[in-house]
Structure formats: C-alpha cells, structure tokens
Amino acid sequence: MAEVKPRIGILGITQALYDHMIPGITERQDGYAHDVAARLGEVADWVVGAPVKGRADAESVMREFVNADLDGVLVVMLTYGPAMRVARLFNENRLPVCLANIQPDPHVTPAWDMADMTYNQGIHGAQDTANAMVRADRPFDVITEDWRAPAFAERVGRWARAARAVTAWRSLKVGVFGYAMNDMGDIRVDENALLRALGPEIGFVAPGDLWRGTGDVPADEVAELIAWEDERFDIDPALTAEEREDHARMQIAIERILVDRGYGAYSTHFDAIGEDGRFARLPLAAASTLMAKGYGYGAEGDAMAAAMVYAGHRLLGDGHFTEMYAMDFPSDSILMSHMGEGNWKVARTDEPVRLIRRELGIGKLAEPPTFLFRYRPGPATLACLVSLGGERFRLVVAEGEVLDARPLPALEMPYGQFRPASGVRACMDGWLRAGGPHHQVMNLGHHAADWRVFCELAGIEFVQV
Question: I need a surface site. Which of 54, 107, 313, 321 has the fewest CB within 10 A?
Fold first, then answer.
C-alpha cells in the first residue's frame, strides 16, 4: 500500500490586484506552482489547480480536488492573498492540509525590484491563511523551506504519506468476528466516538457467516493457495492435507467477507471461534497472510489495533501486529510476539519462513497451521492507539531496533527482541504513564516523525517514549 504514491492537489493562492500592477503575474506564478509539482514528482502525483484569486475560485478548485478523491491539499502562496477569501473553505474542508511556506526565489538580492518583492511575498499570505485555519480549529501541517532543497521534498513526502493514511483511515471499516475478549479493558473504545473523531467504523460479523463461507470455497482456489504456500514457504511435513485445506478455506472465506463488506481490517477472537462449536482450529496463518496482503489485523476483538495495523500499511508499508511479552534486562530489550499472528513480510531474509503444525491450548481446538519466523534485525517503530474517553485519543510511539538475538527454539510463533532507543526502563515507564495498551503495530525503520505528522492531521495527541 505504501508503494502507491499519494495523490495531492496544489491550491495556489494569489489575488487579482496584482494583475493590473504587473501584467502576466498570474501566468508567471502559475508556472511556479507547476515547477513545484514537477520538483516533487517522486513523492506524490500532483493535480495543480488553477490560481485562486477569490472565494468562488477557491471553492471551485477544492470541489475539483474532492471529486477527484485526492489524499490531501498542499497550499502554496503564489503571492499574498487575503485569508478571508478562503476562511470558510478551510472551515468546511475535510482533506488533510499542508501549508507550504515557500517562495520562488530562495534569497533576497540587490537586483530585486517591486515585481520581485511581489513574486516572493507569500510569507505574510501564509501567516494570514494559517491564522484562518487556526481560528477554524482545523489541523494542518506547515513546512517552511527552500522548495528546491532535498529537505523540502523529504518533508512534503512525509506529510503526503500521512495525508494518504489519514484519508484512507477516515473511510476504514473494521470487521470483528464474534466479539472482543471479555474483561480486556485497554482494547475497549466507544465505537461512535471513534467514528466521529477519527473515521474508522467497527462492524461485527457472526462466526456463522465465516462457517458458511468456508463451505462455499471452491476446491481449485484451495489448491491454488496451498500450491502458492508450497512455493514460498518451508512447509512442516507434520501438517496434514486436511489441516492445510481447512486453513486455506478459512483464509479465503475471511478475505471474501472482507472484500464483500468493504472491511479493510479485521479481528478474530479465539473464544468467539472456539465457542462457536463448528470450527476445527483457529485461523492464525490466515491473519499472517492477510496482513501481508495489506489488511489490518488485531487479535482478540481489538478493533483499534486492527485499525492501527491498517494505518501502518498505508503510512509506512508492511504493518505487523504484535505485543510485548516480557522484558530482558541484560539486553535492554523486550520480547515481542503474539499467539501466532504476524506479518511475514517483516521476517528475517536469511532464514526461511516456516508454516508449521503447532500445539496450542488456547481456544480448545485442534492444532492450527501457524507461520513461524523471527523479526528482521534493524531499526523498528512501535505505535498504539489509546482511547482516553469521549473523542480524545492518544498515539504512543517508541523507536528502537530489533536485535540480532539468539533463537528461542521453544517458541512456535513469530517473535523478536525490540530494544527501545530510550532503554527498556524509560520506555516502559513512559508507555505505562501514557496508558499505552498491550497490542501494537510494528513497522521496520524509524518512523516517529511520520506518526507525528499523522497525528497532527488526524487530531490525535502524540506521545513518544
């Protein structure tokens, strides 16, 4: 998902006053806007709106952006433009916005005349426009930079990815198969508040729908999935044909339900599957491959974690569901794992990903096919969403690295050891004080800055520990 470029509109603001003073200025500055778009071609696909001189122009261009299903809007002051002409527009706008505080020429020279002053006077237009957005209480990002500098492209790229993720998040539907785990408090959320404040919608799917779906899967699709797994993974010879077919049917049936009902993320709670009475085993391997295909996932009915994994896909690519299992003080790290679900795209590249038959007492069902791998060593980032009550949400983020630690042969599920950049003690003190829940999304690489921009655009409190 993160490999697809964001689609961003450029809203260039000027005013008709300068057309009389400097003939041709609108065309000149429109060319400047197109030059900016060309300069940023590697970080996003751009739609440059016609220069905006008044309220009607601005509303017309913004309608074009909305109708084109763009991910966000980059505001560029082509000259000074009075903010009252766009104040209502930004009050009603729901697309993520970034105010690019830039100008055509990076430095003032003795050769400048009044025309040069006018071409480059966007700074006070940016102040007027930013003031209007602050008064409207609308979140937005700001980038002050020389537009030709690599740093500008880097920062715009980060904002554009966050805009794409936030825009997708606002229309996300999360399907919970059955119900959430009883008495698990940190995964609970007011569904209406989540929908109103951030956008993700939670729906519930009867386990019976999944059971009927498994019976409707054609044999050729089952055979195709098993053949694909044989080619890509190291298959445990202890797995029987019946176990693999059962797993394949559940995976295909889950994905069909997600597609048919428009769910971009989901959760299956082991008790809801086990207590149904018709299933032979849990769909653990299904969760791993569906995550690798770009679906969000959260265990035990955790819709917020599923939404976060989806956001991790959209923002950074290859979101991975995990949780903190235990602290290892000698290595200053935390053992990360879960019951068996994990995105195998974050696996080490020097070891095969295995599909194994494993013993699992949880769920009181037969042995589930499970992907086994170790996390890839290197930089990594954890993030989780905290519901603070009402429409208040917090994102807790920790950067660190996955260690090249020794194997743990008895663990039959995805795992790795994460060393926080701030150290286990400081990280966990901060995590707990912030109310960070026990399910997280992990992405390889250091991405706290990306999550920070995501929070700014979504209206979420950001805490890094």
Answer: 107
